[in-house]
Amino acid sequence: MQELLTYSLLVVLLVIAAYFYRKKKEKQRKLSELMSRPFPEKWRSILLKKVLFYRNLEAEDKQLFEKQVLRFLATKKIEAVSTTIDDTVRLMVASSAVIPTFAFPNFNYPAVRTVLIYPGSFDEDFDVTKHKGHRQFITGMVGNKALKGTVILSKPDLLAAYNGSRKKSNVGIHEFVHLMDGTDGAIDGIPERLLDHSYVASWLFEIKDEMEDILKGKSDINPYGLTNNAEFLAVVSEYFFENPKSFKKKHPDLYKYMVEIFDQKL
Question: Residues with Cβ < 8 Å from 58, sequence gap 6 or more?
């Protein structure tokens, strides 16, 4: 009897393993088919109009960017909450994910399953309704606990980040940089898997010095970067990708660290 039970259990485990193997292979096949399709010309026009990072790439790199966008859209859910989304919104979400990881084409945010698009900014309870005396200020966040694996973005703020002009802010890039930062196990402003260990100590000193300049009003970096090291990294990354020439001119030392962290010289 014991041998029969053991054999039956083994058969069940093999059936389950075969099921998940077939499911994985089917998912890979569908992804491969999608990646081999031509990038829609309409989507390309949207990227050229709205995403400066993409617009400034060479032709070959534009194709790589498009492939990464397709993969992100094929493997992550983008869902609307009390609003609507279209191809433009989906492409802006995917671009936000691809821009900071462009130099790492094999990276596809394994911890992310879903991106939720809200109709506006929200409070700590994810309420988008304006209450008297209540200030709403959250435009994006990386979920935790029950929302682990979820990114939440305010639709109007996401679209404003991609209006085709130079700026210092981008809520989408901000949140996906947090996710990159967290690949070493902690969202702490020290992306150890991206930043060589020999740079970590000097990077922390650089953060400290720049924070002091922000406090003294001697820096044009968003004061939100004073919150903690993680927010500092996300804030300066926005600036680096959105307006690299200005960032390099005004913050040459920080620029060198951004080049090292993201392996991109803009």
Answer: none
User: What mean pLDDT is predicted for residues 199-214?
Assistant: 93
Q: Which amino acid is at 218?
A: K
62: pLDDT strictly greater than 70: yes
The tens digit of pLDDT for each residue in 124-170 reads: 877 777 655 555 688 899 987 778 889 999 999 999 999 988 889 99
The alpha-helical segments, DSSP class H, found in 124-227 are 155-161, 171-181, 197-215
Beta pairing class for 114-118 and 77-80: parallel
Per the prediction, the chain carries an average pLDDT of: 87
Instruction: Identify whether the C-beta of residue 52 lies closer than 8 Å to the C-beta of residue 166.
Output: yes
Q: How far apart are CA 259 and CA 13, in angstroms?
A: 48
Q: When comparing pLDDT for 185 and 117, which is higher? A: 117
CA dist., res. 100 & res. 68, Å (int): 12
Segment 251-262 mean pLDDT? 94
In angstroms, the CA 51 to CA 241 distance is: 11
Length of the chain equals 266
Per-residue confidence (pLDDT) for residue 23, from 0 to 100: 47
- Cα separations in angstroms, 265 against 54, 117, 168, 201, 206: 14, 31, 17, 22, 19
CA distance 177 to 24: 28
Tokens 């990227």 sit at which residue?
A: 47
What superfamily would CATH give domain 166-266?
Collagenase (Catalytic Domain) (3.40.390.10)
- Architecture of the domain whose range is 41-159: Orthogonal Bundle (1.10)
